[in-house]
From TrEMBL:
Residues 533-547 have a biased composition (Basic and acidic residues). The keyword Repeat applies. Residues 2-246, 310-527 form the ABC transporter domain. This is ATP-binding cassette domain-containing protein. GO terms for molecular function: ATP binding. Gene3D superfamilies: P-loop containing nucleotide triphosphate hydrolases. It comes from Congregibacter variabilis. Residues 553-622 form a coiled coil.
Length: 637
């Protein structure tokens, strides 16, 4: 057991810990959470012996083998395989000693090393290193490439593999999923379930925490508070604790009312009933959990977008890729107002390439792409951060976009992203990656897009900012297509799942849980077990099965299309009526309408209000009947 006893730590003029106490039990898997800058990385540094507490002690570290994931990996000529092997220092030392003994024909020394290698399973080290690389998305040919040949994100994966390679009693992982895609995140999640030591994990991926951890250690007000369960359990427990501490929860009630109002409005618009139910549940859950986040510094909305003509973006017969090498062929895809799509697929299948082609940033190799009149696209990827002017302020960035806007309006908007007061006037150069990503999102939101194309938008965002982004996307009235390894973001914001596999884009008929099951069963993950012929036969059968599934899915979609079109027409009429009704009620709220000379106008408004309400109720009843028919058809399919 590791005991953190009465720790106090001050960095510069900031107090991070004051008499903080916690226990880490053997084999326990713990998520370390808290606001940015609260001391999570400093706690890791204390456990690694790189930083000493001002007061207090850490007991129980003696004799513990500690593995941790480096955040920066320098370029080197070492091969990727050798770099990972060095994570197991004992085995790496024995292999190096064996080479020396064999080169000098010292057979006695070589025999001793062989005995030691056998005792520590050293002969399996290269196989384990290869399995780690394949699991983390590398290919076989990557094993002999030098570390210097990999980009920064892939070097972080190498660092993660090296940490996992090391035999350890305590494993410290700081944002291990930041540079992973969803499939690789699922592989890591499965790997950590089998880890036998104590895991202390910093992550902003709540689903990953829920699946990997059985406890949460939350840093708050310079203390360490322990909670049982994953992040969802932590939210519930913290909300209950805060509710008990407060006799009045006015802010909680107001936020919950907003959520419930949106649930009501959304329920009358949802066109994909099966997926929509999960979003409705998520919205309701957000209302219940709002108190756990009432001290969040983030709260923003995407401005109401202009409505463009459908389809907003249309691809027909598109072949997508670079130069003459296609990654995806035969793409027929339309993005319409209100669509909410998550794009799935292994790393390297072309998800980012597809998004760039959809936005028009990358020309099609063949086929056609059309934007409708009024289509306004906002595209976010990590390169958006690189385009920021680091010698300017957040406020100056917004002022350049809209020079005529009132400064206070700009400051109010930036405040929702936690750029308040002097922070809005500070130059960006010393800002953290998370702060720059927040500003890049703010700049996109400010431009009033009706299409949001998001490629890993949550990288570098902490849990509170991710939650604010989820709420903003839930309330966004435009179209959304997103690539993310954050399953909670996908569950709460996407109605449809599309998958890129084998060079094709297709609708994934299952939900995210079904996709997770598919990946964890190994359908898409590299494996080094089983005869090659059996693998080929399985692959051939899988391709045939998928073709049959796609054909059947296409037939089902054709049968559903008339119902879906009828539902869409009903929604358009309901939306128009609701807008007219809102205008009427706005006019009835004016005191002047009740004056004597406005009596005729008042009578007309009241008559129109009653007629509109009656018609709206009839349309809603018809919509519900059509939805039930559609749901029955979906379940039969």
């Amino acid at each position: 057991m590791i005991i953190l006893r009465d720790l106090s730590l001050r960095r510069a003029d900031r107090l991070l810990f004051e008499e903080a106490t916690a226990s880490l039990l053997p084999g326990q898997k713990i998520a370390l959470t808290g606001a940015n800058g609260c001391g999570k990385s400093s706690l890791f540094a204390m456990l690694l012996g790189e930083l000493q507490a001002d007061k207090g002690d850490i007991e129980g570290l003696g004799g513990q083998r500690i593995a941790h994931m480096a955040q920066d990996v320098a370029a080197s000529d070492l091969s990727a395989s050798d770099f990972i092997l060095q994570g197991d220092a004992d085995v790496a030392g024995l292999l190096a000693a064996l080479k020396i003994a064999e080169a000098s024909d010292d057979f006695a020394a070589a025999a001793t090393v062989h005995t030691q290698l056998e005792a520590c399973d050293g002969y399996g080290a290269e196989r384990r290193a290869r399995q780690l690389m394949l699991g983390l998305g590398f290919e076989d040919r990557d094993t002999q490439r030098s570390v210097a040949e990999f980009s920064g994100g892939w070097r972080v994966r190498l660092a993660l593999a090296r940490a996992l390679m090391m035999p350890s009693d305590l494993l410290l992982l700081d944002e291990p999923t930041n540079h992973l895609d969803l499939d690789t995140t699922l592989w890591l999640q499965d790997f950590l379930k089998a880890y036998r030591g104590t895991l202390l994990l910093i992550s902003h991926d709540r689903d990953f925490i829920d699946a990997s951890c059985s406890a949460v250690l939350h840093i708050e007000q310079q203390r360490l508070n322990s909670y049982k369960g994953g992040y969802s359990d932590f939210e519930r427990q913290r909300a209950l604790r805060l509710a008990e501490q407060r006799a009045s929860a006015e802010k909680h009630a107001r936020r919950r009312a907003e959520i419930e109002d949106f649930v009501r409005r959304f329920r009358a618009k949802a066109t994909k009933a099966r997926q929509a139910q999960s979003r409705l549940k998520e919205l309701a859950r957000m209302g219940e959990m709002a108190l756990a986040h009432e001290d969040s510094p983030f709260e923003f909305r995407f401005p109401e977008p202009p409505r463009g003509r459908d389809p907003l973006i249309d691809l027909r017969g598109a072949k997508i890729g670079y130069d003459t090498k296609p990654l995806i062929s035969g793409v027929d895809f339309g993005l319409c107002n209100g669509d909410r799509i998550a794009l799935l697929g292994r790393n390297g299948t072309g998800k980012t390439t597809f998004l760039r082609s959809l936005c028009g940033d990358l020309p099609l190799l063949s086929g056609e792409r059309h934007n409708s009149e009024g289509c306004r696209i906002a595209y976010f990827d990590q390169q958006q951060v690189d385009t920021l002017d680091l010698d300017s302020t957040a406020l100056q960035h917004l002022q350049r976009l809209t020079p005529d806007a009132r400064e206070q309006t700009l400051r109010d908007f930036l405040g929702g992203f936690d750029f308040r007061g002097q922070r809005a006037d500070a130059v960006l150069r010393p800002f953290s990656g998370g702060e720059k990503a927040r500003l890049a999102l703010a700049l996109l939101a400010w431009q009033r897009p009706n299409v949001l194309v998001l490629d890993e938008p949550t990288n570098h965002l902490d849990l509170e900012m991710r939650r604010a982004l989820e709420i903003a996307l839930l309330e966004f009235a435009g179209a959304v297509i997103v690539v993310s390894h954050d399953r909670h973001l996908l569950r709460s914001t996407a109605d449809s799942l599309y998958r890129i596999a084998e060079g094709r884009l297709s609708l994934f008929e299952g939900d995210l849980d079904a996709y997770e099951t598919l990946i964890l069963r190994g359908a898409d993950v590299a494996s080094d077990s089983g005869p090659a012929k059996a693998e080929d036969a399985d692959r051939d059968r899988s391709i045939v099965d998928r073709k049959d599934q796609r054909r059947a899915a296409a037939e089902i979609r054709a049968q559903r299309r008339p119902l879906e079109q009828a539902i869409k027409k009903l929604e358009t009429r309901m939306e128009s009526l609701q807008k007219q009704l809102t205008d009427i009620e706005g006019a009835l709220a004016e005191p002047s309408i009740y004056e004597q000379d406005a009596k005729a106008k008042l009578t007309e408004l009241l008559r129109d209000q009653g007629a509109h309400r009656s018609t709206l109720e009839e349309l809603e009843s018809e919509w519900l009947m059509q939805q039930e028919s559609l749901e029955a058809m979906i379940e039969q399919g």
